[in-house]
Amino acid sequence: MTYRVCFVCTGNICRSPMAEAVFHARVAEAGLDGTVEVDSAGTGGWHEGEGADPRTVDVLEEHGYSLAHTARQFRPAWFDRLDLVIALDAGHLKALRRLAPTPEDAAKVRLLRSYDPAAGHDLDVPDPYYGGRDGFEECLEMVEAASEGLLAAVRDEVEGRAA
Length: 163
Prior knowledge:
Elements: E1 3-9, H1 15-29, E2 36-42, H2 54-62, E3 84-87, H3 90-99, H4 103-106, E4 109-111, H5 133-162
Parallel strand pairs: 1-2, 1-3, 3-4
Helix pairs in contact: 1-5, 2-5
């Protein structure tokens, strides 16, 4: 049975596609490619149909990640097929939990940086869109740091299903 994870930010062109690319790479490295499906979306539809921000693509490629991406807006009906919905900041977390049709669906929504023990209390991944390249580099560092803990949690869930 496939375990499905969806990363969500505002417009689905910076943070969430970056998280999708990094986590997909971690899933492949762990040998879970056929078991864990990874994608992303935005809370809004402003960029639907567009590719990822070129700065996101450049930073990912320079660090060895690949990304084929088309922005889309998150739909409440997706909760039925998703196991985990990963919000990139507290605003996304609140918006997604409001969209959740049931309390069980709302419980599927988590903040990405909650999987990084070194993150402390500030669990938001800042939006790099209006800044320079350094913001995209910082975003990647935060995503990479949280991806290890997220992978461990997902692996536990997947193994728990198989038991």
